[in-house]
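Hi F.,

I've been meaning to write this up properly since the lab meeting, where we talked about keeping a consistent format for the predictions we share between groups. The idea is simple: the sequence comes first, exactly as it goes in, then the structure tokens exactly as they come out, then a line or two of notes. No screenshots and no reformatting. I'm using this chain as the first example so we have something concrete to point to.
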Amino acid sequence: MHAVNQRRANSGRSGPSSGDVPATPFPSSYDREYLISVAIGTPPQLLPLNLDTGSSDLYVPLPLHKPQSQLISPSWVFSSNTPRSEVAGQKLYNISASKTSRLLIGQTWAITYGDGSTSSGTVYSDNVTLGGVTVSSQAVESAQTVSPTFTGVSASSGLFGLGMTVLNTVRPTKQATWFDNIKASLALPLFTANLKRGAVGSYDFGFINPSLYTGIITYAPLITSRGFWEFSGTGYQIGSSGTFNYSPLDIIADSGTSLLLLPQAVVTKYYANVTGSTYDTGMQAYIFPCASVLPAFIFGLDGSGNGSGVAYRGIIPGNYMNYGQTSATMCYGGIQSQGGLAFSVFGDIALKAQFVVFDAGNSRIGFANKKT
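Output, unedited:
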């Protein structure tokens, strides 16, 4: 059983069954990830974690952004069990300092990354608080071995997974995510993402703040077969004056991925509209002259998802596609190929341009444009 202690959030709303937490970009120059403050244990230990809608575990540590091969990664944390040789300045979850920590005997987790390195560990239960809402006996995955990719990121102590519990990597018994444990106790069984470019945004739980978006929210039903926040888009458009291409896209919304990953044909068309762009074989990525003007990327949703019948067009501004400099004159493209993945990935490049509703209660995901 997971007891839920609901506390009034700081925003002044009247109901206790909701909460919110700031989402801080790191590094702020190009928003590789968005960190939230999570309290674990008794007394509470505050750890900076990356809220990841593409995974379903709570663990520490994590890399700055997930390579394509890491889309199903566990949530875990750097802890007092992590070898000191694999810690490089991260804040640790001190298990013995928490009066409410308990080892889940026989439960373990492990993951192998694309470069062949691994991270693994044991599982504890403890109190976990986010946005003013506490779940007791929440599974916390403690790292005992850590991939060097994770060790090199001192700003983050791990990953807070809010994907579907079906993707949880604990064995032999899958563990429910924090959100799955509290959603029935929220005013609404949903959370929203309002990430911002180079600025602090927020995740809200149990309510939708209408001041954070423009127009109306358009919803798409979830595709539940793979366990992601997955949905279908009706097509795409390159640039505000371009023609909309009715070419369906199978998409997952993944806040733990930095980039916007699309089919190769779509990526090729996009960079055909960027002066001087080229594919760098060493980086295995598209780059472009930093002085080039980048077109917006626009995606579509069926109008039946907003009650008006008017098709939705979600706008990702062109300047969001600059992911940072690779040299004095060249920059890294925020749109890249999805490669062999069976779906496109709306990472932070896309999510920070949209107001996004993760509506578990109605098995749907919603999008609205916002002032960018």
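Notes:
The radius of gyration is 20 Å.
DSSP finds four helices and 26 strands in the chain.

If this format works for you, I'll send the rest the same way.

G.
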